[in-house]
Specification:
By secondary structure, the protein is of the alpha/beta class. 19% of the residues lie in helices and 25% in strands.
Length: 252
């Protein structure tokens, strides 16, 4: 178990969107955008998931944003072999403000760890209404945002994916640790440094695009709903009852 995995945090809110270069609508929010491409018969052939993530705080600068863009682009280029593509654009903004965010824009604030090198848990704010999970537009990344994997992991929360690990307590040491869900031992959402990206993620976005495109009659729909835990869509098969179980974590 990678001790750094503890920097991830269990959250449940997310979003998605459907998008045609011509039609626009913003029914629920603006964390990320799904852009739909169709064939001549009107069938969906491709879905692009896009978002802008402003980085700010300790360790954030233009060079770091460029490094993250290179890392993100390389990661998705190696992993994505479906008809769903991903484009997360990192931009350095010293005074990023949530009130000024536009559709598809988010903020990750880089922070230092606590006293004596104590690791805090990076996280993204979110909320739950009934069986509908929503993601916030902001999050905190500790360690001054120095880990590419942690920054991308939290960014994926912003665009609608949940954690694929459980927090558990060691019965002997009484310390908490994170254990990847079965099948996600090397997945970026389950393991710090994970280099894989589950093929089902693409299906979640594709299904979300189809559902909201049909619902709103638009092919560009910025939403605030998580794609793998949405009440309107098929539940993920990886968690009990279709929901990721929130296990108490070590308070720090």
């Amino acid at each position: 178990m990678d001790p750094s995995a503890g920097k991830y945090i269990t959250i449940s809110p997310y979003n998605y969107a459907v998008n045609n270069p011509v039609k626009y609508i913003g029914p629920d929010g603006k964390d990320f955008i799904l852009s739909i491409t169709r064939d001549k018969e009107g069938n969906i052939t491709n879905v692009n998931v896009s978002a802008t993530v402003y980085i700010t705080g300790e360790g954030a600068n233009e060079q770091r944003a460029n490094e993250l863009n290179d890392f993100s682009s390389s990661f998705f280029k190696q992993q994505n072999k479906s008809n769903v593509s991903f484009n997360i654009n990192y931009v350095y903004r010293k005074n990023a403000n949530k009130k000024s965010l536009q559709q598809g824009e988010n903020i990750l604030t880089f922070k230092v760890d606590g006293e004596n090198g104590k690791n805090h848990r990076s996280s993204v704010a979110g909320f739950l209404i009934g069986n509908r999970h929503f993601t916030g537009q902001t999050g905190d990344v500790y360690g001054k945002g120095s880990s590419n994997f942690t920054v991308l992991h939290e960014s994926l929360h912003l665009i609608g994916l949940s954690d694929r690990y459980q927090d558990k307590e060691n019965s002997f040491t009484k310390k908490w640790y994170s254990e990847p869900d079965e099948g996600f031992e090397r997945d970026i959402m389950g393991y710090h440094g994970g280099k894989s990206f589950d093929a089902n993620y693409g299906k979640y976005y594709f299904d979300a695009a189809k559902f909201y495109s049909d619902k709103y009659g638009k092919d560009r729909v910025p939403l605030r709903r998580m794609v793998d835990m949405d009440g309107h869509l098929k539940k993920t098969p990886y968690e009990e009852g279709g929901y990721h179980l929130n296990v108490p974590t070590d308070k720090n």
